[in-house]
Write the structure tokens for this entry.
Amino acid sequence: MEIKILNLTKAYGDFKAVDDMNLSVADGELIGLLGPSGCGKSTTLFMLAGLTEPTSGQIFFGDKDVTRVPPEDREIGLVFQNYALYPHMTVLDNITFPLINRKVKKAEAIERAQEMAHLVQLDGLLNRKPSALSGGQQQRVAIARALVKKPQVLLLDEPLSNLDAKLRVETREEIKRIQQEVKITTLFVTHDQEEAMSISNRIAVMNRGVVQQYDAPQAMYLNPINSFVAQFLGMPQINMFEAKVTGRGVELNGVLLRTREQLDAAGKKVADGTYQMGVRPESLELCQDGFTVKADSVRMTGRDLLIFFKIGTTEFRALTHSDLQLRAGDDLCLRARKNSLIIFDADGSALVKC
Amino acid sequence: MNRRSFKGYAYLAPVLVIMLVFTAYPLVKAIFMSFCENYSIINGSYKGINLENYKDLFDDKLFIRALGNTTLYVAFVVPLSVVISLIIANLLNSHIKFQGLFQTLYFLPYVTSVIAIGVVWRWIMNSNYGLLNYILGFFGIGPIGWLSDPKYSMTSLIIFAVWKSLAFNIMIFLAALQGISPDLYAAARVDSTPRLRVFFKITVPAMMPIIAYAFIMGIINAFKVYNEVFSLFNSKAGPVNNEAITIVYYIYDQFYNNYKYGIAAAGSVVLFLLIMLFTMIQRLPGRIKAKKEAAQK
Amino acid sequence: MKSTKPSAIIADIVKYVVLIAGALFTLLPFVWMVLSSLKSANEIVQIPPTMIPRKFMFSNYAEAWQEAPFPRYFLNTVFIATVTTVGVLLTSILSAFAFSRLDFPGKKIIFSLFMATLMIPGEMLLITNFITITKLKWIDTYKAMIVPWLANVFYTYLLTQFFSSVPEALYLAAKVDKCSDLKFLFKIMVPMNKNAITTVAILSFIGSWNSFLWPLLVTNSTNMRVLSHGLVRFQSEAGTKYQLVMAASCILVVPIIIVYLFLRKYILEGMSYTGVKG
């Protein structure tokens, strides 16, 4: 099922939770709605579900305008952040509940519930009460309950936020697997950029009710459209700093990060002045002919070594392979890898990458 | 009105209708009636709108006695009941054997009919064959005409009322006691604080809100006392001549037996005002606290 | 760890003495009621009184049962308490749902007014309600003893609190699952709160069973009396047959004690809500 969101707005008094949103989702896509808390991502999801009424704008499922269609008639499956399982009912009763409401015969409902339980790997747990299940299992019950009525669209609200770290990775793979098996158009809300990037076909990054960028994870990570997206994606965070563009090139406290030729080669003429810039920690690489800095501190994270240093008074982080022998106080020579320095406009939008 | 709000009212309708007919309307009507001189329930006529009923009410020695008796009743029953229940609740909350059994026994009066148990007390307090005089006889006291001698009517009523009101207080005190953090007691024990000091310095302060609540609820309920009188004195308000009359008994008597609706209504307004007063007092500490907190912000 | 100091042992003894004395004082009327109800007509007026009946006169119960129409009183009481309880549960559940889940104009004001009525002493409403019942020509009917009690602000308040604590997500999930409000209420909300609802049911039943003044006001004929009313009348009529009066008291008290013993948990819970309210 294709989804189209046209000029969707939700206002609470003067506050616009979602502001003139436009988004289209292709059939069978898995879309992550990503953003900090209060950015309007959950409001968007609830408007898609029909539980929140939009102030203006339209939502299309396929060719049908569903903007005023009540939730029960939208053919959606919805998984809540806290799963919203009915605590007094068994797993089986929870899963068959939507079917019984739709007047499906009991025998058929049970059969379909068992199929679903098998899909989400809950076999053998059907007679338990939700309280006797682990968080991950409860999550699967919620997904089974959402999918059992064969909806056209699956919506998940922060599906992983209540799980511990290890289970979170497992469960997100599980969601991806189920989604691919059922081939259902899916939107999920998350504030965790890694979660969004790892399983989404495309991500919509939202801030203050506005979609900042809507793109495939890799494209978005490499080419963030503005400083907000650049900072929101990536862990450890991108290094942001102010530097000067002069006739010599890009300068920061006497360190020449790019020559004027290199900058101009990026294809866009950048006027002289002070700019906000960003470079990701993993884009700073060791070399022979770069600039020399002193490591303030070194953190071992396992796969990587995270090095903290300063250029002038600006703090930086660089990520290197963990076999590097380096201690705090040691000097090291670095450069910013080609095509990794992003220069932002005064309004924060990306100007050029060089 | 849209569909959603219609639905809200539909769900509320049964309660709303009954409340309008049997609470809101009678409230307004009672206040109105209390100002109607010579109100007749047959055609709703009255001689005039004035304070005649209130004047009659406070001129009536019986009403003054009812007020006095009710005040006396409140003054004895409430403090006695609160103090005794506080002690019992504390004992019940300490590590004792058969705790469950004791609790079950102590709470028993809460669920039993005042009327039935009043009839039993009437028998226990019988001056000739009663158990109470028999027991007191061992100590060389009596026999006392608990229910036949007007001097003792209020005493008998108070004994019965204390017995009846203990259960509720013990219950809410016990619940409050169990809500006090055991850490406080552990800390007190480590500091080898004497038992009585623990009681007055830890338990009582922590219980202050609930004790205040018990006091106010006790007072409000005591103002409404009626069943106790009715059953103890066999459908009368005292052995000879209304020695144990209370406000509610007076109201009931005025409208049911004397057909003086206006005066009864005036009596009920006085009762309402008294109860309102105490309800306000109960809410006062919360209000002051809220104001203080608001001021601090 | 228990202390074994002599002072602690004495304190323990005092504790038990006080507790047992208090328990005896509490139990005394119940025990005396049962014992007296089993004594013979001669023994009951004997001086000094005997503690244990010489012969257990169970026939007293049969006699009391026959001397006044107690079977009829009993059925009246059971019927009124049952219908009132079922009815008040229904209205309270519906209104609690409206307050906790539905949106409609004036909701807050109506709720505040509801809570304000808790301050009104029921005794103040007696006069007008008595007049209303008379005008409706309901005197001497079951309706008169049931209908005015079919709305209860306290129960509504209690259930509203419980219903409000059910996560909103469950309600939304049910909506998505094509579940109507009424079905959600009775399939999800009610079963999830069955303890609170049971508590309300028991409190209502006991309250109705023990009610006295109102049934006394609105009934005239013997046929419509409830147990408590019947008992008071019987006490006046039976004169000095105290053993029969005690047996009649037992008929009124014992069923509720049985309910209490079996469903103690719910009653205590209910009482603690009353306490929490303050």
Summary: Chain C has a mean pLDDT of 89. Chain C touches chain A at residues 167, 169-170, 172-179, 183, 188, 191-192, 194 (CB under 8 Å).
